[in-house]
Write a structure and sequence with these properties.
alpha+beta, five-stranded mixed beta sheet, 5 strands, 35% helix, globular
Length: 110
């Protein structure tokens, strides 16, 4: 699958500068691609974030969705990526305990 190879290329570009501190509470650890086993489903590009502050909640993470969505939908190069892949921002605490994910698809931009 070419989509998967291309996604892996994007992920490795991201990973070449990871871990990357985003702000005082968030660090991007890495990016990975997963290929769907379901026919017709897109490859998913997953950004794995670590939350450095144990007080951040699922609600706070989900409240970031409009800002993230705006960024993806307003920049042509990012929209192009979203047309090819679904995107997930996965958030875990430092102890690897899962908090929440923000999932984006090209349909969210319409």
């Amino acid at each position: 699958a070419d989509d998967f190879k291309m996604c892996q290329k994007i992920a490795s570009e991201i990973n070449s500068s990871a871990p990357m501190t985003i702000n005082e509470t968030t660090r991007l650890d890495n990016a990975v691609c997963i290929s769907s086993l379901k026919k017709g489903e897109k490859v998913k590009l997953i950004y794995n974030y670590k939350i450095l502050d144990g007080r951040i909640t699922k609600t706070e993470i989900q409240s970031r969705r409009p800002t993230i969505l705006d960024k993806w939908c307003s920049k042509p190069d990012m929209t192009f990526t979203l047309e090819a892949y679904d995107v997930e921002y996965s958030h875990n605490y430092m102890n690897d305990k899962y908090i929440a994910s923000i999932n984006l698809t090209i349909n969210d931009c319409k």
